[in-house]
Amino acid sequence: VTFEEAERELQQIVERLESGSVPLEDAIALWERGEELYRLCRERLDAAQGKVEELARRVEDARPAQAPPPV
Amino acid sequence: MGKLEAIDYGDRQVYTVSAFNRGVGSWLQRLPTVWVEGEICDLRRQERWQTVFFTLKDTGDGSILTGLMPRGQFDALRLELQNGERVHVYGRPELFEPRGELRLRALGIERFGLGQHLAALERLKQKLAAEGLFSPERKRQLPRFPRRIGLVTGNDAAAKRDVIASVQSRFPPARLLVAETFVQGPRAAAAVAQALGAITAEPEVDVVVLARGGGSFEDLLPFSDERVVRAVADCPVPVVSAVGHEQDTPLCDLAADVRASTPTAAARLVVPDLDELLSSLARARAGLGRGARRSLERHGARLESLATRLERAAGLLVERRRAGVERSAAKLRALSPLATLERGYAIVRHEGAVVRAAATVTPGAEIDVRVSEGAFSATVKEMRQ
To answer: What ipTM does the predicted assembly reach?
Structure first.
C-alpha cells in the first residue's frame, strides 16, 4: 500500500463516517480500519522526514565552508 | 687638322703646339651651344678687365670648368652673383689657345635659385604622384612588435641619438640596426637610397626609420631626390620618415608609409610603450580574475538558494502530508464511538452483529467485546431474567 493509497482510503472513511448514514457495526469497523491507516501513514511520514533530515545533514557536511579561492 | 701646316720630318708630320691648339680650338667651335648647371666659385670681375672669369663646380662630384663672359655683358645681367650660388650657364666650349685650356664661353647666365628649385621639385612631385607613389592605398600598417628596426641616418647625428634613445626607453627589448650614411651634400641622395636597400636586405628588419634632423632647404634636398623617393616607395617593409622639422615636407615624406614630425615621434610609432603595455596587461588580467570570481560567486549563490529550497521543499511536502493525515485522524476520532467507550461502555458483537438484546445469544455463545482500549472475546455463561 502506498502512502497516497492509504491516505485516500483514510479520507474516504472519514467522509463516509461524516455522512452519518453508516450502520453502527460498519462504523466501528471503519473506525478501526481508519486508525490502522492513520498509523501506517504516520510511519511512512516519520520515515520520510527522517530521511530528509539525514540527507540535509549530509549535504551540510559536504558543503565547503567558504567560496572557492580566487582564480 | 688637314689644313694646318705641319712640318715634315721624313714620313712623320709634326705640329707646333700653337697649331695643335688652334686646330682643337677650331674643332670645338663646331660643338653646339648648351646649358650647363653648376655652382659659381672663384668669381673674378675687375673694372680694368674686359672679361669676367669664374669657375663652375659640379655639386655632385666636384668637377670644375672655367667659364668666362665679357664684362659688359655680365654687368648687363645685373645678377649680383656671389660665390657658392647655383647657376645655369648658356654657352659653348672653347679652347684658350695660348694655354691649351678648355673654357666655357658664357652667352647667358641664370641664377638657379629657390624658385627654380621649388619649380623643379614640384615637377618631380607631380610626376611621381601621377605614378601613384604617394597614394594612400600604398600605405602599409607598421608592425606592432618589430623584430628588428632598421635606422637609416647620418653618422653621429642628433636625430640618430634621439631615435635610439626613445626606442630603447619606450621598449627596452627593441633591436635596432643602424645604417649610417651621408644625409647632406652631393653624395647623400645616392647613399641614402643605397642604405635603404642594404638595410632591408638584412634578416628580420621589418620596419625602417629614415631620420635626419632639421636643416636648410638645400640640406634637405637629397630627401626629395627622385632616387631616394623611389627607394622609399619600393622599400619591401614599411618606412617611417622623420626628416627635417614639422614644416618641411621632403618628397620622401610623401612616399613613406608614415611621416613623423620628429625622431622621438618616429620612435613612438615603431615601438609600443613597454610600461604602458605591461600595466594594461596587468589591468586586463586583474579584470579577468575579478570577472571569473564574480561569476563563480553568482553561480554559487544560485546553487545555495536552490539547495536550500530543495531541502525546504522536501520537508514542506512531508509536513503538508502530515497535516492532511492528522486532520483526517482528528475527524476520524471525533466521529468514532471512542468517546462513548471511554465513559465505560462496551460494544458486544456476536457473529459480527452488534448484540442489542440478550435473547439474541444463548449460553455457550462466543462473543466479541470492544472497550475503549482494546478488545477481547468471551463466552456467554448463563442467561439472566
So the answer is: 0.74
